[in-house]
Design a protein that fits this description.
The complex is a heterodimer of chains A (271) and B (100). Chain A is α/β, with parallel strands linked by helices. Chain A contains 10 helices and 8 strands. In chain A, helix 7 (198-207) packs across helix 8. Chain B has 100 residues and is an all-alpha fold. Chain B has helices at 15-42, 49-61, 68-76. Chain B is flat, with a radius of gyration of 19 Å. Chain B starts with 14 loop residues before the first helix and ends in a 24-residue tail after the last helix. Classes of the chains: A alpha/beta (271), B mainly alpha (100).
Chain lengths: 271, 100
Amino acid sequence: MRYIEPHGHMVSRTTDDYQAMALAGCAAICEPAFWAGFDRKTADGFYDYFCQLTQHEPKRAAKYGLPHYCWLCINPKESEDMKLADDVLALIPGFLQAKTVLGIGEIGLNKNTRNEVRILEKHIELAVKHDQLILVHTPHLEDKRKGTRLIMDVLKAAGKVKPERVIIDHVEEHTIGEVLDQGFWAGITLYPESKATPVRAVDMLENFASQRVWLNSACDWGHSDPLAVPKAMQEMRRRGHSAAAIDSLVYGNPVRFLSQSKNFKDPQALR
Amino acid sequence: MSDPNPLAGTPRRTRDQVADLHFMDARYKLLDLAAFLDRLEKATGPEDHRVRGLRAALPILLKADGDRVAQILHLWSDPSVAPIEKADTKAASGVWPGLK
């Protein structure tokens, strides 16, 4: 069965992972900018990273027949250095001309600090000014509920953000309802330990109206699984869900959200 | 317009069917938790705030409500609402340290 991986940090993965994802039915991969596991010291480091996301990674994915798209930002974990964050934000408009950029992301909060909030506001301004989609990272573990609520307050306060053009990622059982109720899309991230497992994700999909939900693996340099989405699909099949319902969730939903960007092409239309 | 809830049309499963699918998974996780608590008991020093949070969550498992996961995640969440001035770490621990 086909699916879209709407959030995968492929710069951290081997080409074997691209091959495994293609064999498992992946039809396209979208890669948000994120934290490298250490703090980059200069805007030049981000310039190179954005070149990697917009030029090099699409070529690597293409070897396995996979269209590769990306999102650009400075991750909230590096937002405490306001000067660096401003310098990186100034780089982004020059990369928005690239044909595979979907929007601004993954922006958001990490520890819910004032500086993180200020840089989040600037990212949102940038997205509105350039009519870009927004992909939001919500904080980890005990910081998630507070951060998710702060992020939604900032998005609403910006005044010009259309909720249907924003996906709030890494929702869990205690945040998914509020996100959907406020009109945003919700992303469920499948991690072996620290977010939702495939089994819990399917429970959430059975309990909430899931027209504005996508599943992603967020596979990165940490403990993560690039095949997490097909494993959730297998769990849905084990529970007796129809092929059409599964396809609607793991292919139809991401295509509907991402098609709001003029750069995204439905993989089916490319065949 | 797509179906607002594609997974809602599935027939309700019996408890036997759910157990057939997921009992062994839940069984090993419960045994792992028991082993973890035994391991802690043999260790020295004061109780960690994360373990305190874990113990506080255990009664929720025995409630009859259908939203145990959400209740536990709410219990472990930072209850404050305003942004903090500065963080002393990038990491989260899993349980709000102020939980009593």
